[in-house]
Amino acid sequence: xxxxxxxxxxxxxxxxxxxxxxxxxxxxxxxxxxxxxxxxxxxxxxxxxxxxxxxxxxxxxxxxxxxxxxxxxxxxxxxxxxxxxxxxxxxxxxxxxxxxxxxxxxxxxxxxxxxxxxxxxxxxxxxxxxxxxxxxxxxxxxxxxxxxxxxxxxxxxxxxxxxxxxxxxxxxxxxxxxxxxxxxxxxxxxxxxxxxxxxxxxxxxxxxxxxxxxxxxxxxxxxxxxxxxxxxxxxxxxxxxxxxxxxxxxxxxxxxxxxxxxxxxxx
Length: 267
Hints:
Elements lengths: L1 E7 L3 E6 L6 E7 L5 E5 L2 E4 L5 E3 L5 E2 L6 H10 L4 E5 L12 H7 L3 E8 L7 E4 L4 E6 L3 E7 L8 E7 L2 H8 L4 E4 H9 L11 E4 L13 H14 L9 E6 L3 H14 L4
Parallel strand pairs: 4-8, 12-16, 14-15
Antiparallel strand pairs: 1-9, 2-3, 3-8, 4-5, 6-7, 10-11, 11-16, 12-13
């Protein structure tokens, strides 16, 4: 099968506070033609599933933290090749979502020569006791089922969408990181989420959202955003897949990306 490739025509910069560390963070996306690579000083690591080192509340690539929102934006825009330079060990929070990255990148896209890769013949399953991800060749129909703690808001949410540039930008990319109210202080005590604010994080109370939501089902949409970013480690165009996931987090997402990369290897 012929797979499209795309990079950027000029350098793009996004700045802000690191999502978890809270310190100033800076990322620059440069044109490239040899895949997706992140670099910090002399350190350089390719964005592939095998190089993920931690999936606790974020996706860590080598020594670089919280790549999933930028990766989601790259997937939504079809950017397969870029040299991504970071100023420290973590990317900016970028409003807790992918939209600021899309806004910065969407005007400088340029296509590269396409590449042939094997077809995806068999359905891919990643299943644990609490989560499930099913991936098949398709036309971009993605579905995510969010299930919160029993007996409290928001309970059960399902979001599904036919992925396109427009639907990703308008319906998924603005969905922010979410946290239950009882998790906030524990996370901050553990040094997590220090770069998030009431504007960039949606807090879930026992009976409703603590701060205004952008969508009634924003938690499910953000989980789908994370899934898109993590699966982009395999760099199979998201509009060429049908994906159905339930209760998955970064650990299951990256495991599914590894299975997808094995089934459709990069050449």
